[in-house]
Automatic annotation (TrEMBL):
<keyword id="KW-0378">Hydrolase</keyword>
<dbReference type="Pfam" id="PF22784">
    <property type="entry name" value="PTP-SAK"/>
</dbReference>
<dbReference type="InterPro" id="IPR029021">
    <property type="entry name" value="Prot-tyrosine_phosphatase-like"/>
</dbReference>
<dbReference type="InterPro" id="IPR000387">
    <property type="entry name" value="Tyr_Pase_dom"/>
</dbReference>
<feature type="domain" description="Tyrosine specific protein phosphatases">
    <location>
        <begin position="94"/>
        <end position="176"/>
    </location>
</feature>
<dbReference type="GO" id="GO:0016791">
    <property type="term" value="F:phosphatase activity"/>
</dbReference>
<dbReference type="InterPro" id="IPR057023">
    <property type="entry name" value="PTP-SAK"/>
</dbReference>
<dbReference type="InterPro" id="IPR050561">
    <property type="entry name" value="PTP"/>
</dbReference>
<protein>
    <submittedName>
        <fullName>Phosphatases II</fullName>
    </submittedName>
</protein>
Length: 186
């Protein structure tokens, strides 16, 4: 079974003119980052950024696509605005179903990234864990138990991603709400 890894945007370039609020410059090389991903066994990348945000971060889609293609890396685009979630549960489920069947269950490692690799990438990791049944509270039939199941599963997901990636993972109420809707959908 393939693993799922989270990362900030490959090739990311921010704060190049100096520190902002104590945070220093980041000047990564897109080609080197993607080569490193390939060297550690990554076969596919889920990119949660749109073309505009990729360009803003110094990794324009044309360059990104060309570099990934030259290394044999598949790129799955699932763009969403910062702090938000996919546009629909069905869209996210279709993408994750494909990701799990075409890559994870075939032993291919997948890397998910957004800008910092915490919020949107963490959200994708949560629905990946749900889809694989890695985090799940078994539901009972009565409505009270269904709500309790949803709450316990949601807490387990957020706790797991925060323990494994960052205490800041799942950054917004919108992302929590999306996870709740996805749990109900499944």
């Amino acid at each position: 079974m393939g693993n799922l890894l989270l990362s900030s945007c490959p090739g990311k370039k921010v704060r190049l003119t100096g520190p902002v609020r104590g945070r220093g410059a980041i000047c990564r090389d897109l080609g080197l980052d993607l080569q490193r991903f390939r060297q550690i066994g990554i076969g596919a990348i889920v990119c949660c950024l749109d073309d505009e945000e990729l360009s803003f971060l110094g990794a324009p889609w044309e360059s990104y696509e060309r570099e990934a293609d030259s290394l044999g890396l598949d790129v799955i685009r699932l763009p969403m605005a910062e702090g938000f979630a996919p546009t629909s549960v069905e869209t996210a489920d279709a993408a994750i179903t494909s990701l799990v069947s075409d890559y994870t269950l075939q032993g291919v490692h997948v890397l998910v990234h957004c800008r910092g690799g915490v919020g949107r990438a963490g959200l994708i990791a949560c629905i990946w864990m749900l889809k694989l049944g890695l985090v799940w509270e078994a539901p009972r039939q009565a409505p009270f138990f269904m709500q309790k199941h949803l709450y316990k599963t949601l807490c387990a997901l957020v706790d797991t991603i925060r323990m494994r990636r960052s205490l800041k993972a799942i950054e917004t109420a919108e992302q929590v709400h999306f996870l709740a809707r996805y749990i109900e959908y499944l």
